[in-house]
Amino acid sequence: MGLADLHVHTIYSDGSDTPTSVIELALGAGLSCVSVTDHDTLQGLPEASVAAEKAGIELIPGIEFSASCQGREVHMLGFLVEASHDAFQKTLTEQRARRTTRIHEMVERLQQVGAHITAEQVFAHAGEGAVGRPHVAEALVQGGYVKTRKEAFNRFIGADGPAYIPGSPMAPKRAIEAIRGAGGIPVLAHPVYLEDDTLIDQFVKDGLVGIEVYHGGHTPEVVARYEQLADRLSLLKTGGSDYHGAAKEGTPIGSTTIPTELVDALKQWKAEHH
Ligand code: AMP
Ligand code: FE
Ligand code: FE
Ligand code: ZN
Description:
It is a single chain. The chain is of the alpha/beta class. The chain has helices at 19-28, 45-55, 86-112, 119-126, 133-142, 149-157, 172-181, 199-205, 220-232, 260-273, and strands at residues 3-8, 33-36, 58-69, 72-79, 185-188, 210-215, 236-240, 258-259. Helices cover 43% and strands 17% of the residues. The mean pLDDT is 97. It binds adenosine monophosphate (AMP), fe (iii) ion (2 copies) and zinc ion (ZN). Adenosine monophosphate is lined by residues 14, 39, 66, 132-134, 149-150, 153, 158, 167, 244, 248.
């Protein structure tokens, strides 16, 4: 059977490749299915869909929602979401507005610690996509305040940094409900970064359907732990590379894959529940 990569970013959030390039890379990697999962936007899907059809690859429409819970960042993937739901689009617009406000807050903090970049410089790096910390990192590199994006996170904008402003205050429950309301399937992204598996029980009560068991940030031991957890809580399993292109090196498209049987399970869930 074929292989799928269900976690890929494009220029419409903090990836560096266009949706068309992403599909071409997926074809080159021998994948038969890919999901574009940009942060808080569906803007990349129309182009990805055209490219996927041309390449003979299946595109799973996706999203990666930012939420937070007890001071921790929670990323919620949504698969097979439908762009036609007005309430969903409204929620995404709110999320992106929050991202914009947050950039102004971060730039203010950066000014206070001597890194004189402007919000306009950050927005220029984001283009028309959802703006985020990686774009701040690029502006810091360009301004000569750090040598690499990684250094920008370590010194300024990582969770412990002096210019860190928390992301979306949205509760995971709301993200789950928004995804389900748009005909989609909510899946907890890279659960190891939560650093607290006990939170997952509550997410399941809130309507979580799956977890991203397979991810580059998961060691084989962690994968085994989440496979067991998924079985115990009857959650669907997904996985992907979390590809960001040159914006985050080391995880090429196809570096983490799942068999397409797991994609079939997502489709089956949708057919039964929506
Ligand atoms: P934001 O959504 O604005 O909070 O930005 C989060 C994004 O920043 C993640 O999706 C990653 O792409 C990237 N990121 C987070 N931590 C790091 C890090 N330590 N180094 C490089 N990129 C990071
Ligand atoms: Fe990202
Ligand atoms: Fe993420
Ligand atoms: Zn991601």
